Amino acid sequence: GMRTTHTLTGLLFSALAFSPLATLADDTTLPSYGEQRQQYMDKSKQNAGKGARFSDEDRAIMKSSADKLARALPEPGLKVGTKAPDLTLKNAFGKAITLSNELNKGPVILVFYRGAWCPFCNTHLHVLHESLPAFKQYGAQLIAVTPQTPDKSAAQITEDNYPFEVLSDLDSAVMKAYQLYYELDPELVKVYRTHSLDVEAFNGPGRNVLPIPGTFIIDSKGIIRGMHADTDYKERMEPAEILGVLQMLQ
Question: E strands, 135-208, where?
Fold first, then answer.
């Protein structure tokens, strides 16, 4: 997949993400998305024998869709140094949340995810949830944006006990503003449905649309200071990388 990760100081940043600096003062190490993703993938392999696997034809359609998306959006997501577009969206319980208001409280980690149906999104949200105490040391809060309807988010928040806002982008305007929006290929929609994955059941009728998963670290002035977006939806920004960017904002 095409990967875009940008921060203001690239070299310092890559050193930071893997150095002791990325561990916290109290010696708790941040959870790793990569490790948890691997555990999930190992488990799915074990379970694949029991359930309906993707056929070779399914896989070919999935690969061709992925390749097409990577060509169409070679550098997804707004770049570091750009002003984050303001947004007002309703949270899972109908309350309007405005980014500029939230930035008055401190930096925001804005994370776009596909929906509660996506195991990689759930893995990422899980490690971000576990990392909240570390992010809070830098005055930062996490806000998630998804195309799914508020009732689907509410169920997810309740089940996973998420303390952060999950906002529904029901007209796709915010996904478009952050340059992450795309529409699913009709062939891919069919493959998903065969495997009881109905995106419209989450997003609403006629909305086979998704964001390329993206993470943006926005400083209190509203400038994007770190980001990661990748058309390969299995790739996500590690909590340690996010923390590295927050440390640079101090």
Answer: 141-146, 165-168, 181-183
